[in-house]
Every structure is written in C-alpha cells, then in structure tokens.
What does this fold into?
Amino acid sequence: MSGLNRQSRFERGDDVVVMKFGGTSVEDSAAIRRLIGIVQSRQHHQPVVVVSALAKVTDQLLEAAHAAANGHLGSALATVRNIYVRHEALADSLVTGSAYGSLDRELRDEFRALESLLQDLQTSRHLDLALQDRLLGFGECFSSKLVSEALSEAGIKSAHVDARDCIFTDARHGQASPVWDSTNQRLQDTLSPLLQSARVPVLGGFIASTGDGVPTTLGRGGSDFSAAIVGAALGAARVEIWTDVDGVMTADPKLCADARVIRKMSFEEAAELAHFGAKVLHPATLAPAMRENIPVYVLNARRPEGEGTEISARARTGTSVSAITAKRNVVAVEVASSRGIDSALFNTVFGTFDQHACAVDVMGTSLGRISLLASSTAALPGIAADLQGVADVRWENHRALVCLVGENIRHQPDVARRVFAAVSDMDVRVLCQGASDRTISFLVEESKVEESVQRLHTLFFQKPELVRDWGGISSAFCQAG
Ligand code: ASP
Ligand code: MG
It folds into this structure.
C-alpha cells in the first residue's frame, strides 16, 4: 500500500482495528505469543492494541494495598515481589538483547516506585480511592510495556503509549468518566502519527488521568471501555475484545452447561446484558461504540478462528430472548410511605441515598412504595435512620436479579407469561418489565439462581423441535429481526 493511500485510508479511520486483550490473553508467555499471532493476522489493517494487566494482577495489587494500609508491609511487599518476578520472567522469555536490558530497567524502576508507595501507605495507614487508582494502574503499565516490547521483538513495529497521557477523566476515583473532547483530541494527536508511520500503538487499558495529571481508573474491567474510547476517537472500523470465551453467551456457562454463543446482537441488547451483570463486557463499553457506530466483536484468543459475537447497530439475535443473566449479591430495598409517593418524597429519598453514596437501581414504584436494588447493606441503617418519619426503609439481602434480555421482549406479552409460569413455584419478587423495552427481570433468593437460569434457558433456547414437543411454544423462535 502506498504512503498516500495508507494516509488517506487512515484519515477516514476505516481501516483501524482496536484490539483489546484481557488479563487471561496476556497471562503468560504462551498467551502473549498468541496475542502476537493475532496482531500479525491484522497487520494489513491498522491495529491499535489495548491490554489489561496480567490475569489476577489487579486483585493482587489491591490485596497489597490493603495489607500495607493495615500495617502488614511484609506481606504487601511479598505480593508485589511475586508480581515483579512474573513480569521479569515474561520479559526474559519474550524479549532479548538491548531491548530486554531497557525493559528490565524500566520494570525495576516501576516496581521500586510501587514499593515506595506501599511503604508510605504503611506509615499513613490511609488508603483512599485516589491512591488506590495509582496503585492499581501499575498492572496495566507493566503489561503494556511488556506487550509492546514483545511485539517489537516479533518484528511488529510497535510504540508504547501511556494511556494516562491520552485518556482524561473526571476525578471520580475508582470509576472515573471520560472527558470526551480532550480525550478524543489527544488520542488522535498521539495515535495518528504512529499509525501513519505504520507502528502499532500499545496502550494499557483501565488507566487514565484527570486533566491535572492525577491517575484515575475507569472501574474494574475498564479495559474494554478504554478500547471503545480509543476506537471512537479514531473512528475505527471495528473494536475487537479478545478474551477466553467464544463470545457473548446466552447464559453464564458456569450456571448453565447448555449456554451457547450469540452470533450477532444489537448494541442495546449487549449494553443491557452488561448492565445486568454479564461479565464479558464493561457496562460503559458500548456507549462510545454506539455513538460512532463502530461494531464490537467479542472473540476467543485461544481459538482465534472462531466467529465470536458481533455487536452492531443492525445485528439482531433473531430469537425473542437473546440472553439470560444473573446478578448476585443484590439487596432488595423497599421504601414505603403511608402518605403516598410524590416527587417531593422521591427527591428526599434519592437525596438521602446519594448522601450516603449508596448507588441504587429503581425496580419499580407502586402505591406508597418504591422498590430499589442496592449492592450492599452497609449504608442502609444510616439511610433508614435519616428517613425516619418520612418513609419506612426495609431490606432483604442474599437476593439475585435474574434478567432476560431481548430486542423486543416487552412487546411480546407471551414471554413474561412464560417466564412467570416457569418460576412460579419459587419465591419470585418484583417482576419488572417496565423500565426498558429489552428486559424482563425479577428477584429470587440467591440459592435459586442456578435453577431459575437453567429453567429459563431450557424454555427459551432449547432446540425448537424439542420445545415444540414440549408444549407448542415454538413461535418465539421465529422472531427474525
Ligand atoms: N485490570 C483491570 C481489572 O482487573 C481492568 C481490566 O482488566 O479490564 O479490573
Ligand atoms: Mg473484562
């Protein structure tokens, strides 16, 4: 391809492929070699690589941070030492010569900085979210440097780019949101020249910084979101999420052995699925992709020849229910007021939850009652006390939210009826069909999650002929979109 041709193609962004590799896709040298092969297979496009920390590293860094803050510096340093040894061994097996020398020095310097942060933390005993973001970011810093050098070693011209210099966020540490204009501008300014000179930029996912340069993170699992942010800024042709499963599944295969890959689904369906607890994508990922209409593919790095799942504007699953998810550890909260529910009460109630930094999802409202979901009971006694005299707050924990997602699910009354019938013998609470056209969800006791997901999966995903034998409910399978 001529230089001119390449440049004009890049300007439209239509040949850029952003490839995100999750923790298990960089976990050891075999995984990184697979990554190299996959990037090689896309070299005739313009790949941009986004990587997570090596599998388990973010959890270990968090563990080390808590240990140091609790005065157990020895254990914190031992954990970090293990992380260092793991990276060092990978550098040794993947990179040689002077490149190895400088990578080794960089890793060493970074680990010293990490150790000294932990030492300070043992003295201050104060771990706030800002410091936590700084500490957790080390995982992606290390992995991205390692992968960039490994690609170069394999003959793919690459360039390490520090994502904290390109992705800017607000200061909501632990779960920051991008500041789009400055982020888009900086990503274009930094990555375009690299792509034009046929280099593969390699960025750590998950990490970002405020405009003032304070490190932030995009929330756990945030590397997917990073990839979508980069893709949107460049107007990429596609974003590929490389992981260790064959794609987005009809249910969590750990809950349901019959779960199968969804070949195509819409942005909206996938976003609902991520929001309702499917682990495969960070919930914020699809918004930038949807805005720029960039298809997202979920692919298995262990089986790169597989088709994976295509998530795009037009794609439809073709079934009435596209997937069933379950969110565990849910607390069902009921706020009741004998004076009825009006907007003033709504304001007071949500203001109080807000003051206690307790994020809630609204399940529904009825006469004198608001049903909410929270992920922890920690703030609830304080909230109940503050609302005393205004409303009565009660809660039940150990619940799970089971959710059926499908493009048109709400306009098929038959689906809700069949869901209800399938779980009628369980203690089902708060069936919610109103909030979105694409979901029907309900609460069950946590111990019943597996059984309810399996029953619903059999009901909606069993082969049509089997289902037909089972009671004439095959029509749902004819909903091609
Ligand atoms: N390493 C981060 C985490 O474990 C981000 C990611 O993997 O997407 O949450
Ligand atoms: Mg993930």
